[in-house]
Automatic annotation (TrEMBL):
The protein's name: Small ribosomal subunit biogenesis GTPase RsgA
Native organism: Sphingomonas glaciei
Taxonomic path: Bacteria, Pseudomonadati, Pseudomonadota, Alphaproteobacteria, Sphingomonadales
Annotated spans, Disordered: 48-68
Note on how the cofactor is bound: Binds 1 zinc ion per subunit.
SUPFAM superfamilies: P-loop containing nucleoside triphosphate hydrolases
Domain EngC GTPase intervals: 110-261
Essential cofactor(s): Zn(2+)
Length: 346
């Protein structure tokens, strides 16, 4: 393992008592805690107290999709051969069904403190997409912050702020010019030493520009958006951690993720309930606990809609997300329950 004296100590990497309490005295003698900085095919780049290296991502006695390391994970590795002994329990894990195979999970990022949901003050601003990201954050238990970029290019950025704030009670919204360090400084409170922030958002909204400003470098490539539709090309292909290098409280870590335009909702009922807590509260007033909010008598949802106190567009989005989660979660559960031989024959 290569010695690098300048590597941050464990605390600066995000180590805290949650992870420390998982180690026994024997672990301390034979194992070394390291954090996963990036993931590559069959390998992970890790950093620890005074060293960094690239090691095999193989985990002994792996039993499923979640038993493999992802960016942000804390690992205990053997001090001698550097093999992974185990993945430490996570404070949070962002995941989604793997494209084309919902029996498998695609791990996105682990041990995240704050999720920056990035969108721009232009035609890319999409309420339904933002709500999906907020649902994911709610399900995982990570605090979301909606970051509105390209504020300098919008004639009325305040309208986008109001629209974003209306999506979830108390959600934090920050308006920035991603190219300006002074403007981005408003995000410093989330980027303190040892903190981990992940970014999600579709391509072309300025995520890579924001990463460059937060890290104080131009190492992340950027691409212009297409004029005809305002959409951008994917510039991030590898999930990795970047050191935040701006502001007096900077020094935390930033996890950039490839742009995800389509997010399948599966097993996120808790997140849906959190984002749409206003509608859930109304539904609790229905006469029947299994009310489908269609033709049932004394349906509080239908009454609120008729009275004009419930936005029909928001209600439609809630129905769509809740229905999508129910269907996809059921499909995933049935596929996981199928015997392996049956799956292979199918």
């Amino acid at each position: 393992m290569t010695n690098t004296p300048g590597t941050p100590i464990l605390f600066e990497l995000g180590w805290n008592s949650f992870f420390g309490d998982q180690l026994s005295e024997d672990d301390g003698r034979g194992g070394q805690p390291v954090r996963v900085m990036s993931v590559h095919r069959g390998m992970v780049s890790v950093a620890g107290d005074g060293f960094q290296d690239s090691i095999s991502s193989s985990v002994p006695d792996s039993k499923g999709s979640e038993d493999r390391p992802t960016v942000g994970d804390w690992l205990l590795i053997d001090r001698d051969d550097h093999g992974i002994l185990r993945i430490l329990d996570r404070t949070s894990l962002f995941k989604r069904p793997a494209p084309g195979d919902d029996r498998r999970l695609q791990l996105i990022a682990a041990n995240v403190d704050t999720l920056f949901v990035v969108t721009s003050c232009d035609q890319d601003f999409n309420v339904a997409r933002l709500e999906r990201y907020l649902v994911l954050a709610g399900e995982v238990g990570v605090s979301p912050v909606i970051v509105l970029t390209k504020a300098d290019l919008s004639p009325d950025p305040s309208a986008f702020v109001e629209a974003a704030q209306s999506l979830q009670a108390g959600v934090e919204v920050r308006l920035v010019n991603a190219r300006s360090a002074e403007s981005v400084a408003g995000l410093a409170d989330y980027c303190r030493i040892g903190a981990t922030v992940a970014l999600v958002g579709s391509s072309g909204v300025g995520k890579s520009t924001l990463v460059n400003t937060l890290t104080g470098s131009d190492a992340t490539a950027t691409q212009p958006v297409r004029e005809e539709d305002g959409k951008g090309m994917h510039t991030t292909t590898v999930r990795q951690m970047h050191r935040i290098g701006f502001g007096a409280t900077g020094g935390g870590w930033l996890i950039d993720t490839p742009g995800m335009r389509e997010i399948q909702m599966s097993e996120v009922s808790g997140g849906v309930a959190e984002v749409f807590d206003d509608i859930v509260a109304i539904a609790l007033q229905c006469r029947f606990t299994n009310c489908m909010h269609n033709d049932e008598p004394q349906c509080a949802i239908r009454a609120a809609s008729a009275a004009g106190t419930l936005d029909p567009a928001r209600l439609a989005r809630w129905r769509k997300l809740a229905g999508e989660d129910e269907v996809n979660s059921g499909i995933a559960a049935r596929r996981r329950a199928r015997p392996r031989k049956t799956r292979e024959r199918g």
